[in-house]
Amino acid sequence: MMRSHLIKPILDEEYKQISHGSGVYLYDTDGKKYLDGSSGAVTCSIGHGVKEVINAMHDQAKKVSFVYRSQFTNEPAERLAEKLAQLAPGDLNWSFFVNSGSEATETAMKIAIQYWQEKGKHQKSKILSRWMSYHGITIGSLSLSGHTERRARFVPLLDANPVISPPYCYRCPFDRTYPGCQLKCATELETAINRIGSDHIAAFVVEPLVGAAGGAIVPPAGYYEKIRDICDRNQILLIADEVMTGIGRTGKMFAMEHWSVQPDIIALGKGLSAGYTPIAATLVSDSIIEPILTGSKLIMSGHTYSANPQSAAVALAVLTYIEKHSLVEASHSKGIFLLNELQQFKKKFTIVGDVRGKGLLIGIEFVSNTNTKLPFKKDCKVTNLVIKQAQINGLLIYPSTAGIEGVSGDAILVAPPLTITETEMNELIYLLYKTIKEVEDSLQV
Ligand code: PLP
User: Fold this and answer.
1) What family name appears in the similarity comment (predicted)?
2) Mutation test of ligand 1: which of 244, 276, 413 has the most ligand atoms closer than 8 Å to its C-beta?
3) What residue's CA is closest to ligand 1, atom 10?
4) Cα–Cα distance for residue pair 238/253, rounded to 1 Å
5) Distance separating alpha carbons of residues 10 and 45, to the nearest angstrom
6) Which ligand 1 atom is nearest residue 211's CA?
7) Same structural domain for residues 169 and 281?
């Protein structure tokens, strides 16, 4: 075999090559078929090879693929911003386009800081976040991320720091139970604000459901209402990082709609183009843009490929497809079925501790003992074992972390394309059952 010069996530590991995809399936160059049970990285939410998107891509390429946003605007980017303004809750009417989720959260940080500067509050520059979170891999977005492993190597470069605990009822950080806990995980934000001083804080950022760093953690009822109230009373903006949860993934167009809480800024990525091209967005409310419009009139961020017509045309085609096929509603109803079926795994396996999620974003947390909830020792690498065994069985799922402080626990995300049929969901359930059974047997627990 020819030596590869491609830097892969794990350099010395052998990777299969994918030749093509169709619907919920991917095929490798050896002809093996995989059910894409995680939409890649929770991204390909309308499945692979959708003709309408390919046609839109082709049509736009025939017109123009790139214009520089500082010289010109373009029709697809204008239409995409219009569409997102229609879809987004409340007055989140403004879109700033970037290329990745990391850039979207980083832009959100910058806009939040700039907002307060335009209002003359130059000291309000800290962005607070939670442990067990992932907001991206660039230095700014990694600063916000409470993902201990991904931070470790770069700590000297990381400026902001997560300050509060996640709303993680399965392992309550305060050893309490809901509702007697009185949402201490939310009120901890106020304690942190009092310690740091609200005069120094621009915003608080959350993933509506904790994804890669928590295995689809769903906060308890009332949590976000309380968070919104604390932010308002302390004049702190609320940023929702909907890079993973947005565009229908959890059964609502935006996950924050589950709690009827409107953030001031939303970061989008992944599902926005369903993986057909790189594009992401930072959505901003009228009230945030207003002082910038009347002030410096310029958002100090952006990239060469920001708002390029090619990616915008693709994202528009994806949103049209999602609406035409009622995929947000489908995500809700299919999610109820899949979550219910996967929750049966808690009775069938001794290593399945918790199954949780909303819509088609479902997390499974593995434990060495379901009574004590003790995570497996790190060197067991249970997540890896499950991911690899699933791949052997022709099923793709997404690795996650969970457990005590999110450093020593194992979890996976099940997040198939929203287009998945009932037959395909049954195939997914069967393949995942077979996989976990094989791993559990190999662990001899
Ligand atoms: N925010 C969240 C919630 C994510 O899940 C991710 C990626 O997994 C990101 C941000 C970073 O997005 P990207 O990998 O596109 O930079």
Assistant:
1) Belongs to the class-III pyridoxal-phosphate-dependent aminotransferase family.
2) 244
3) 135
4) 18
5) 26
6) 5
7) yes
